[in-house]
Amino acid sequence: MNVTITARKFKARASLKDYINEEVKSLSRFNHDILNVDVILSYQNSKENIKSAEITLHIPGQTLVATEDSDDFAKSVGAVTEKLSRQLKTLKSKKTTRVK
To answer: Greater confidence, 41 or 48?
Structure first.
């Protein structure tokens, strides 16, 4: 699984990159066929200091995308991985019901 992390308008710290890698690797328990993962972190410098994370998962035959905004990158990444885990669970349940 290739993980690509892109930080827009800022430089991501090594601790944030490590956290993202751990969260993304935890998604492999739902689907072992994940080919590529693209993580895009962006920072909107407004009064609210919105930090957003977008993760794109490439699996054979499908692409899953989720985004989340919050006041911290760790919260955003955690919420996005939760969304993707739900999408992977749904995809897995659809596959198992078709096989039966």
So the answer is: 41
